[in-house]
Amino acid sequence: RAASPAPGSAPPGSWTPCCGRILVASDSTRGWAGFAVTEAVESALGVPAFLDNDVNAFLLGEISAGAVRGERDVLGMTLGTGVGGALFPGPHGAAGEIGHIHGFGDLPCTCGGRGHLETLASGRSIGA
Question: How far is Cα 47 from Cα 60, in angstroms, rounded to an integer?
Answer without folding.
Answer: 21
